[in-house]
Design goal:
The chain is α+β, with helices and mostly antiparallel strands. The protein has a single domain, classed as 3-Layer(aba) Sandwich (Aminopeptidase). The protein has four helices and six strands, in the order ααβββαβαββ. The chain has a six-stranded mixed β-sheet with strand order 1-2-3-4-6-5, with helices on one face. The longest helix is centred in the middle third of the chain and has 15 residues. It is globular, with a radius of gyration of 14 Å. Keywords: Acyltransferase, Transferase. It holds the Pfam family Acetyltransf_1. Its EC number is 2.3.-.-. It is an enzyme of class 2 (transferase).
């Protein structure tokens, strides 16, 4: 992530203490292994929100493992986990400079939404996945 953006306060909170800020609140962390080496990660963060159940966040795939559908598999695993606990909507924020990520989110079924406030300076696109359709 730091190759594209500066780390922000909300990043540090989640990444410095994922147990407290993600897992203990009902979220999940997914780690992709390739040849027994961790090469990708993403989080499903439980949201206290009237519209969204979870945020898909902190997705990253090592440059040496890109192009192997690892991001897609991470996203699919997160969506499956959200469905298994009865979630109806997943939210995410990103930046359109990350064209491959935006394309991946669209392939996973996410659609652009507008009008939400964001804690991220870098976020210029917000997307949702409606799991009830």
């Amino acid at each position: 992530m730091s190759a594209y953006f500066t780390m922000e306060e909300s990043d540090y909170k989640a990444l410095d203490n994922p147990k407290e800020h993600i897992l203990d609140k009902g979220g999940k962390i997914f780690i992709a292994l390739y040849r027994n080496e961790p090469v990708g990660v993403c989080a499903l963060i439980k949201m206290d929100d009237p519209v969204y159940d979870f945020e898909l966040a902190k997705m990253a795939v090592s440059p040496k493992a890109q192009g192997k559908s690892i991001g897609k598999r991470l996203g699919e695993a997160a969506i499956k986990a959200a469905r298994e606990v009865g979630a109806s909507r997943i939210y995410l924020e990103s930046n359109t400079i990350l064209t491959p990520a935006i394309n991946l989110y669209q392939k996973l079924g996410f659609q652009k939404v507008v009008g939400r406030t964001t804690p991220y300076k870098r976020g210029n696109i917000q997307m949702e996945l409606n799991l009830t359709q």
